[in-house]
Amino acid sequence: MVIRTQAVAEATGGRGRPKINFEQMPARFPEGTMDRIDRVLKDGETRADLVRDSVEATIVSRERVAERRRIAAEAKATREAEEKKAQAKAKRDAAKARKAAAVNGTPPAE
Description:
With 110 residues, the protein is mostly helical. It has three helices and no strands.
């Protein structure tokens, strides 16, 4: 019992039960929003429940979009790096061909 009480005291800063969902952010909504929220609430659901669920769903959606964009940017960078590498190789090959042609006394093929 002492361990549990001590854990609760540490979690709450020494007072009462531990807080859950304690980050707060006041928000102002356009006129009529509360009525619209009330019309779509499920049985037993509060406005706060709907707002929390909506915010969570929006965050998850935006995180997915950000991840897809990050992956696409990485793929583009990889493609560009491969293209640059291929162009550098083509330049080296062309220079080798010119050098070989000069050594052999034949005109370079273009």
